[in-house]
Specification:
Largest sheet: 6 strands, antiparallel
CATH superfamily of the largest domain: Fumarylacetoacetase-like, C-terminal domain
Radius of gyration: 20 Å
Structural class: alpha+beta
Number of strands: 20
CATH architecture of the largest domain: Alpha-Beta Complex
Number of helices: 5
Order of helices and strands: HEEEEEEHEEEEEEEHHEEEEHEEE
CATH class of the largest domain: Alpha Beta
Strand content: 35-45%
Bound molecules: magnesium ion
Shape: globular
Distance between the termini: 74 Å
CATH topology of the largest domain: Fumarylacetoacetate hydrolase, domain 2
Amino acid sequence: MKTLNALVLLIFSIWGWSVACAEPTTYLRYQQGSEVAYGILEGDTIHQLKGELFENPVKTGRTVKLDEVKILTPVEPSKVIAVGLNYKSHLGETSPAQYPGLFTKFPTSLIADGENIVIPSDSTNIHYEGEMVVVIGKKAKDIAPEEVQNHIFGITIGNDVSERAWQRDDLQWFRAKASDTFGPIGPYIVSGLDYSDLLLETKVNGEIRQSSSTELLIFDVPTIVSYVSRYVTLLPGDVIYTGTPGVTRAFKEGDVIEVSLEGVGVLSNRAVKE
Ligand code: MG
Protein backbone atom coordinates (compact mmCIF):
# COMPACT_ATOMS: atom_id res chain seq x y z
CA MET A 1 0.00 0.00 0.00
CA LYS A 2 2.85 2.30 0.91
CA THR A 3 4.47 1.62 -2.44
CA LEU A 4 1.18 2.42 -4.21
CA ASN A 5 0.81 5.70 -2.31
CA ALA A 6 4.38 6.63 -3.14
CA LEU A 7 3.78 5.80 -6.80
CA VAL A 8 0.58 7.91 -6.94
CA LEU A 9 2.42 10.78 -5.27
CA LEU A 10 5.26 10.49 -7.76
CA ILE A 11 2.88 10.50 -10.75
CA PHE A 12 1.07 13.59 -9.43
CA SER A 13 4.37 15.32 -8.75
CA ILE A 14 5.57 14.72 -12.31
CA TRP A 15 2.19 15.83 -13.71
CA GLY A 16 2.22 18.97 -11.57
CA TRP A 17 5.77 19.75 -12.57
CA SER A 18 5.02 19.27 -16.28
CA VAL A 19 1.94 21.54 -16.06
CA ALA A 20 3.94 24.20 -14.22
CA CYS A 21 6.73 24.03 -16.78
CA ALA A 22 4.47 23.85 -19.85
CA GLU A 23 5.65 26.24 -22.53
CA PRO A 24 3.07 28.46 -24.20
CA THR A 25 1.80 27.00 -27.48
CA THR A 26 1.52 29.10 -30.64
CA TYR A 27 -1.34 28.29 -33.01
CA LEU A 28 -2.14 29.64 -36.45
CA ARG A 29 -4.63 29.08 -39.26
CA TYR A 30 -3.09 28.98 -42.70
CA GLN A 31 -3.64 28.16 -46.32
CA GLN A 32 -1.31 26.20 -48.55
CA GLY A 33 -2.57 25.76 -52.09
CA SER A 34 -6.27 25.10 -51.70
CA GLU A 35 -5.87 23.50 -48.27
CA VAL A 36 -6.80 25.38 -45.08
CA ALA A 37 -5.60 24.01 -41.75
CA TYR A 38 -4.65 24.84 -38.22
CA GLY A 39 -1.13 24.30 -37.06
CA ILE A 40 1.25 24.67 -34.15
CA LEU A 41 4.21 26.91 -34.87
CA GLU A 42 7.61 25.89 -33.52
CA GLY A 43 10.45 28.11 -34.75
CA ASP A 44 9.62 28.57 -38.44
CA THR A 45 8.03 25.13 -38.78
CA ILE A 46 4.27 24.58 -38.79
CA HIS A 47 3.03 21.23 -37.52
CA GLN A 48 -0.33 20.63 -39.19
CA LEU A 49 -3.28 19.77 -36.95
CA LYS A 50 -6.34 17.65 -37.61
CA GLY A 51 -9.70 18.33 -35.98
CA GLU A 52 -11.32 21.36 -34.41
CA LEU A 53 -8.94 23.80 -32.73
CA PHE A 54 -11.02 23.90 -29.54
CA GLU A 55 -11.47 20.13 -29.24
CA ASN A 56 -7.94 18.87 -28.70
CA PRO A 57 -6.72 18.54 -32.29
CA VAL A 58 -3.86 16.16 -32.99
CA LYS A 59 -0.77 16.58 -35.15
CA THR A 60 -1.09 14.94 -38.57
CA GLY A 61 2.68 14.48 -38.82
CA ARG A 62 2.87 16.86 -41.81
CA THR A 63 5.02 19.97 -41.52
CA VAL A 64 5.49 23.05 -43.66
CA LYS A 65 7.65 26.16 -43.38
CA LEU A 66 6.01 29.39 -42.27
CA ASP A 67 7.14 31.29 -45.38
CA GLU A 68 5.44 28.74 -47.66
CA VAL A 69 1.91 29.47 -46.44
CA LYS A 70 -0.59 32.30 -46.39
CA ILE A 71 -1.56 33.21 -42.83
CA LEU A 72 -5.34 33.50 -42.30
CA THR A 73 -7.32 35.15 -39.51
CA PRO A 74 -6.68 32.83 -36.54
CA VAL A 75 -10.38 32.31 -35.89
CA GLU A 76 -13.74 32.65 -37.67
CA PRO A 77 -15.85 33.92 -34.77
CA SER A 78 -19.61 34.16 -34.38
CA LYS A 79 -19.06 37.40 -32.47
CA VAL A 80 -16.40 40.09 -32.21
CA ILE A 81 -16.81 42.09 -29.02
CA ALA A 82 -14.69 45.06 -27.97
CA VAL A 83 -14.16 47.10 -24.82
CA GLY A 84 -13.79 50.87 -25.11
CA LEU A 85 -11.87 53.19 -22.78
CA ASN A 86 -10.11 50.42 -20.89
CA TYR A 87 -6.72 52.09 -20.24
CA LYS A 88 -6.45 55.20 -18.06
CA SER A 89 -3.97 56.64 -20.58
CA HIS A 90 -6.69 56.53 -23.29
CA LEU A 91 -9.41 58.20 -21.21
CA GLY A 92 -8.29 61.82 -21.50
CA GLU A 93 -10.77 63.87 -19.46
CA THR A 94 -13.32 61.04 -19.29
CA SER A 95 -13.89 59.39 -15.89
CA PRO A 96 -13.46 55.62 -15.67
CA ALA A 97 -16.75 53.73 -16.07
CA GLN A 98 -18.33 51.53 -13.39
CA TYR A 99 -18.47 48.59 -15.80
CA PRO A 100 -16.81 47.68 -19.13
CA GLY A 101 -18.09 49.74 -22.07
CA LEU A 102 -18.84 47.25 -24.82
CA PHE A 103 -19.42 47.50 -28.55
CA THR A 104 -19.23 45.02 -31.40
CA LYS A 105 -17.35 44.63 -34.62
CA PHE A 106 -18.64 42.35 -37.37
CA PRO A 107 -16.84 39.06 -38.12
CA THR A 108 -16.68 40.34 -41.72
CA SER A 109 -14.48 43.24 -40.58
CA LEU A 110 -11.64 40.86 -39.67
CA ILE A 111 -8.53 40.62 -41.83
CA ALA A 112 -5.37 38.59 -41.39
CA ASP A 113 -1.80 39.67 -40.83
CA GLY A 114 -0.41 41.04 -44.08
CA GLU A 115 -3.77 41.97 -45.59
CA ASN A 116 -4.63 45.56 -46.44
CA ILE A 117 -6.73 47.94 -44.36
CA VAL A 118 -8.96 49.64 -46.93
CA ILE A 119 -9.68 53.28 -46.06
CA PRO A 120 -13.21 54.07 -47.29
CA SER A 121 -13.27 56.90 -49.85
CA ASP A 122 -15.49 59.09 -47.61
CA SER A 123 -13.39 58.51 -44.46
CA THR A 124 -11.78 61.66 -43.02
CA ASN A 125 -10.22 60.61 -39.70
CA ILE A 126 -9.27 56.93 -39.41
CA HIS A 127 -7.19 55.76 -36.41
CA TYR A 128 -5.27 52.64 -35.36
CA GLU A 129 -5.89 51.06 -31.93
CA GLY A 130 -3.41 48.34 -30.91
CA GLU A 131 -4.98 45.85 -28.51
CA MET A 132 -4.67 42.49 -26.81
CA VAL A 133 -7.48 40.18 -27.96
CA VAL A 134 -8.90 37.28 -25.96
CA VAL A 135 -9.97 34.10 -27.78
CA ILE A 136 -12.77 32.07 -26.18
CA GLY A 137 -12.19 28.30 -26.21
CA LYS A 138 -15.22 26.95 -24.38
CA LYS A 139 -18.87 28.05 -24.32
CA ALA A 140 -19.40 30.64 -21.58
CA LYS A 141 -22.73 31.82 -20.19
CA ASP A 142 -23.07 33.70 -16.92
CA ILE A 143 -19.69 32.65 -15.53
CA ALA A 144 -17.93 34.10 -12.50
CA PRO A 145 -14.54 35.86 -12.88
CA GLU A 146 -12.87 32.89 -11.13
CA GLU A 147 -14.18 30.54 -13.83
CA VAL A 148 -13.08 32.65 -16.79
CA GLN A 149 -9.65 31.07 -17.18
CA ASN A 150 -11.28 27.71 -18.02
CA HIS A 151 -13.12 29.30 -20.95
CA ILE A 152 -10.22 31.12 -22.58
CA PHE A 153 -8.22 29.40 -25.28
CA GLY A 154 -5.52 32.03 -25.59
CA ILE A 155 -4.70 35.53 -26.70
CA THR A 156 -3.92 37.20 -29.98
CA ILE A 157 -3.32 40.71 -31.28
CA GLY A 158 -5.82 43.14 -32.78
CA ASN A 159 -6.01 46.55 -34.38
CA ASP A 160 -9.42 48.08 -33.58
CA VAL A 161 -9.47 50.40 -36.60
CA SER A 162 -11.81 53.31 -35.86
CA GLU A 163 -13.21 56.11 -38.01
CA ARG A 164 -13.44 58.93 -35.47
CA ALA A 165 -15.76 61.24 -37.40
CA TRP A 166 -18.28 58.43 -37.86
CA GLN A 167 -17.77 57.33 -34.25
CA ARG A 168 -18.67 60.87 -33.17
CA ASP A 169 -21.60 61.48 -35.54
CA ASP A 170 -23.35 58.14 -36.18
CA LEU A 171 -26.19 56.82 -34.00
CA GLN A 172 -24.33 53.52 -33.63
CA TRP A 173 -20.70 52.63 -34.12
CA PHE A 174 -20.97 49.83 -36.64
CA ARG A 175 -19.74 51.90 -39.57
CA ALA A 176 -16.99 53.50 -37.46
CA LYS A 177 -15.78 50.23 -35.96
CA ALA A 178 -17.01 47.35 -38.10
CA SER A 179 -16.58 48.34 -41.73
CA ASP A 180 -14.82 45.75 -43.87
CA THR A 181 -11.09 45.44 -43.03
CA PHE A 182 -11.45 47.43 -39.76
CA GLY A 183 -10.48 44.36 -37.70
CA PRO A 184 -6.90 43.22 -38.30
CA ILE A 185 -6.29 40.19 -36.05
CA GLY A 186 -3.51 37.64 -35.55
CA PRO A 187 -1.15 36.35 -36.74
CA TYR A 188 -1.09 33.76 -33.93
CA ILE A 189 -3.05 32.63 -30.90
CA VAL A 190 -0.84 31.80 -27.96
CA SER A 191 -2.22 29.61 -25.19
CA GLY A 192 -0.66 28.99 -21.81
CA LEU A 193 0.81 32.51 -21.60
CA ASP A 194 0.40 34.71 -18.52
CA TYR A 195 -1.08 37.83 -20.13
CA SER A 196 -1.42 39.96 -17.00
CA ASP A 197 1.68 42.09 -17.75
CA LEU A 198 2.69 42.05 -21.42
CA LEU A 199 4.24 44.87 -23.43
CA LEU A 200 1.77 46.15 -26.04
CA GLU A 201 3.11 48.48 -28.74
CA THR A 202 1.92 50.03 -31.98
CA LYS A 203 4.27 51.34 -34.66
CA VAL A 204 3.39 53.31 -37.76
CA ASN A 205 6.03 53.04 -40.48
CA GLY A 206 8.46 51.77 -37.84
CA GLU A 207 7.89 54.62 -35.36
CA ILE A 208 6.46 53.78 -31.92
CA ARG A 209 3.07 55.44 -31.38
CA GLN A 210 1.61 53.42 -28.50
CA SER A 211 3.52 51.63 -25.74
CA SER A 212 1.94 50.21 -22.63
CA SER A 213 1.40 47.05 -20.60
CA THR A 214 -1.67 44.85 -20.32
CA GLU A 215 -1.14 45.25 -16.58
CA LEU A 216 -2.76 48.69 -16.95
CA LEU A 217 -6.15 47.46 -18.19
CA ILE A 218 -8.88 49.11 -16.08
CA PHE A 219 -11.12 46.04 -16.34
CA ASP A 220 -9.00 42.88 -16.44
CA VAL A 221 -9.77 39.85 -18.60
CA PRO A 222 -11.70 37.84 -15.94
CA THR A 223 -13.89 40.88 -15.24
CA ILE A 224 -14.54 41.56 -18.93
CA VAL A 225 -15.37 37.97 -19.91
CA SER A 226 -17.56 37.40 -16.86
CA TYR A 227 -19.44 40.64 -17.53
CA VAL A 228 -19.98 39.89 -21.23
CA SER A 229 -21.17 36.36 -20.42
CA ARG A 230 -23.97 37.73 -18.25
CA TYR A 231 -25.66 39.00 -21.39
CA VAL A 232 -24.24 37.06 -24.31
CA THR A 233 -23.38 33.40 -24.74
CA LEU A 234 -19.76 33.27 -25.78
CA LEU A 235 -18.85 30.45 -28.15
CA PRO A 236 -15.50 28.86 -29.01
CA GLY A 237 -13.68 31.13 -31.43
CA ASP A 238 -15.40 34.33 -30.30
CA VAL A 239 -12.97 37.17 -29.69
CA ILE A 240 -12.89 40.16 -27.37
CA TYR A 241 -10.71 43.20 -28.14
CA THR A 242 -9.71 44.45 -24.68
CA GLY A 243 -9.07 48.16 -25.36
CA THR A 244 -6.27 50.42 -26.50
CA PRO A 245 -3.78 52.46 -24.44
CA GLY A 246 -2.60 56.02 -24.85
CA VAL A 247 -3.35 58.49 -27.61
CA THR A 248 -4.21 57.29 -31.10
CA ARG A 249 -3.70 59.27 -34.30
CA ALA A 250 -4.91 59.14 -37.85
CA PHE A 251 -3.16 57.02 -40.44
CA LYS A 252 -3.16 57.42 -44.19
CA GLU A 253 -2.80 55.52 -47.42
CA GLY A 254 0.55 53.73 -47.63
CA ASP A 255 1.15 53.61 -43.87
CA VAL A 256 2.18 50.27 -42.36
CA ILE A 257 0.70 49.67 -38.91
CA GLU A 258 2.35 47.08 -36.71
CA VAL A 259 0.90 46.02 -33.37
CA SER A 260 3.15 43.86 -31.22
CA LEU A 261 2.28 41.95 -28.07
CA GLU A 262 5.06 40.42 -25.98
CA GLY A 263 5.12 36.64 -26.30
CA VAL A 264 2.63 36.61 -29.17
CA GLY A 265 4.19 38.35 -32.17
CA VAL A 266 3.57 41.23 -34.54
CA LEU A 267 0.41 42.02 -36.50
CA SER A 268 1.28 44.05 -39.59
CA ASN A 269 -1.12 45.66 -42.09
CA ARG A 270 -0.74 48.29 -44.79
CA ALA A 271 -3.39 50.95 -45.36
CA VAL A 272 -4.66 51.46 -48.90
CA LYS A 273 -7.31 53.81 -50.27
CA GLU A 274 -10.60 52.45 -51.56
MG1 MG B 1 -10.57 49.82 -29.18
